[in-house]
Amino acid sequence: MPFTYPVSRLALLAGVSAAPLLLSQPVAAQVTLPQIVVNAPSPIARPAPDTGDGTPQDPAQGTLPIVTDQFATVTVVPKEELERNGSGPLGDLLMSKPGITGSSFAPGASSRPVIRGLDNNRVRIQENGLGSNGVSDLGEDHGTPIDPLAADRIEVIRGPATLRYGSQAIGGVVNATNNRIPDTVPKDGFSAELRGGASSGDRGLDGAVLLDAGKDNVAIHADAFGRNSASYNIPAYPYLNDPTRAFGGRQPNSAARSYGESLGGSYFFDGGYAGLAVSQINSLYHIPGIDGEDHGTRIDMRQTKVTGKGEFRPQSAAIDAIRFWLGASDYKHNEIGYLNANDPTSDGVRQTFTNKEQEARVEMQLAPFDLRFASMTTAIGVQGFHQELTAPSPDGAGLFDPNRTQSLAAYAFNEFKFSETWRAQLAGRIESNRVTGSSPDIPSGDLATSDRTRNFLPKSGSIGLLHDLPWDMVGSVTAQYVERAPRAPELFSRGGHDATGTFDIGNPNLNVEVAKSLEIGLKRAKGPFRFEANAYYTRFDGFIFRRLTGEMCDDDFASCTPGGAGTELNQAIYSQRDAIFRGGEFQFQWDVAPMGSGLFGIDGQYDFVRATFTDGSNVPRIPPQRLGGGVYWRNANWLARVNLLHAFSQNDVSANETGTPGYDNLRAQISYTEKLKNDPSGIKQFTVGISGDNLLDQAMRNAVSYTKNEVLMPGRTVRVFASVKY
């Protein structure tokens, strides 16, 4: 796809983009990086390096985390980056990562990660290996009940992860990890961490406290967090199709606040541990846009969740470990607003969503087995899932009637080590899904609903190869065949969703969605020059999407039937078509030379995805290609960097969808970290810093957002942050 780029900006990135050509050039300082251990892609766990306190080892401050020992493509966001940028939802946090963007329905409150152009029912969001159990996959206006303030690390699997987590992970997985269920006893018996920050663009404040204590066989964790922000600054008038509205320099109706807490503990015994945690999150956030502003639309969310986790290592020659995860959650949110835009006294609940969900998974890792030609390690697992969804409305029929989903699955992973340089993985999964709900007879326009039960049997498999190459590079090839069962809302929706401005109509006759994917990668994690390059091709048979018909509806189904006279909401019917996704990502970091007491370096990135139906028309809501780079300086204490990310214009849009112009996002940060020993205050480490986003104060519209014609991304924002560890 051809593109142009202003010469003045291209000059800044020219040196950055040329860095790979300088791989062989001598560098005065060699960098030795710790092994990055991740646990999201595969049930086959590898020994973690000993950090002294049992915590996962993160890369050195400011270094680019490159994962080379996984067959899946994994992006790691370490704790120090979370502390620096942890002022918003997951989608905003991951917005600039190659191959990842955010839905940005309500920046700062409701932004779900979009991976390689896929989101909602194709991207699983989870915490400590269990689903987030909200309803963010049912509507772009719904927030995710996971807050980065309480997380220690984020892992993102780019590409299918259905084999371990289920068919709703056909596009990838976002896994937030924390210590709510401790897996070690604190080294000194007690530790505490305070995190906090303040941002200028939304007058926001956020903070968290995390406590860990333990002795002998018991460990306890507690945490609490909160954030509050006003409507955020924007650099231009937001409404493309209505020039008459008042504008005060802020995105109207974009304020948000949230808070939560958790308490958990673990008991350790000979060969393992078992733990339990109870957590709760509350959030009240406003929905920007014309309709949201006129009706004062906001969402009041609450979730209570109980989770369990454990591991047992038997004294057995055949079994290395048995691990389990289990969870149950009760989620509810009310969508509140004026029934009549001109009457504030008509304020009330317009729509309610509830989700009661239970999930359990057990995995057994077998001891390595000698096959003569290779050493084989096998892990097998079973997963069960039950969900009940409701969406009642006081104004009449809700988005869908109560529905139920039940799932039971089994999977197996086999990894083969042929030599020190050749490794392979062979994995498979079979899953039984039963979805029960009700739907109207759409073709005839019959308003009477009938109960329906659909049974699906998705099957998936993958094969992958890893090969160590010269100059510490690792090459990979992965092929996957994955199937996804339709979700209940895709089958049974038949109501208005004011926040998205659509009247969603499900199709109870949808079939299993099939993705055939091939990905190649080249990575280097050692030395002064580190990089990651991936290219992928995925063909979807029966890709499920919401098709805008061009017709209009009101809040009742009768207005959408033949002869209806709706005027308020865009009719969107869940449909299936074959589609092709292809794209790639590249990122690098190069420690160019010593400078003073530290290292000076440059970094860069590029990503793109092109998605079309097989007739050549465009798949809706696909992110544009992006190119970026910057400079940095770091040592043991200081980290300073400046980075420019350019998003190109997106004109490859579907019918009834508008394009977006390109923009430049200039970001900068400086932070200082100090580790202390035997300090009288008890402080072991502290970090202070300041960061800036959209420093050019450009009007940025997100191509994948449903509200891109009415909602701008935040303007210039400066954030100060600090953390203290005891």
Based on the coordinates given, report the CATH architecture. Beta Barrel
Total domain modules: 1
- Helical coverage, percent range: under 10%
Let me know the number of strands.
33
Backbone shape: globular
Give a verbal description of the structure.
The chain is mainly β and 726 residues long. It has one domain: Maltoporin, Chain A (Beta Barrel), CATH 2.40.170. The protein has helices spanning 7-17, 79-85, 90-93, 162-165, 290-295, 488-492; strands spanning 73-77, 100-102, 113-115, 123-127, 130-131, 153-158, 172-177, 190-199, 204-215, 218-229, 256-269, 272-286, 298-312, 319-338, 347-366, 369-370, 375-390, 403-417, 422-441, 446-456, 459-469, 473-484, 494-497, 502-505, 513-524, 529-553, 569-595, 598-613, 626-634, 638-647, 663-675, 685-693, 717-725. It has a 22-stranded antiparallel beta barrel. A 5-stranded mixed beta sheet has the order 1-6-7-4-5. A hairpin with a 4-residue loop joins strand 18 (403-417) and strand 19 (422-441). The N and C termini lie far apart (52 Å).
